[in-house]
Design goal:
This protein is mainly α. The protein has helices spanning about 1-20, 25-35, 40-70.
């Protein structure tokens, strides 16, 4: 079963790396993460995702307030 998961994981990684719609930034980050300790890379990716989500929420909140004030 572990071999199946590994093969499935590699297929998913290759799908992203070969996908012309995937951003160059995502592909670069994925390649970089693959050369690192997987636990460290996963932990760092969770922190990055949280920080980007907070930034996005803040920016969307500003945009919503601006629309509400002008409407």
């Amino acid at each position: 079963m572990r071999g199946e998961l590994r093969a499935n994981e590699l297929l998913r990684i290759n799908e992203v790396l070969l996908d012309p719609a995937a951003s160059l930034w995502l592909k670069s980050a994925l390649r970089s993460a693959l050369s690192r300790d997987p636990v460290d890379a996963a932990n760092d990716s969770e922190i990055l995702a949280r920080l980007l989500e907070l930034r996005c929420d803040r920016l969307l909140g500003k945009a919503q307030r601006s629309v509400a004030e002008s409407g």
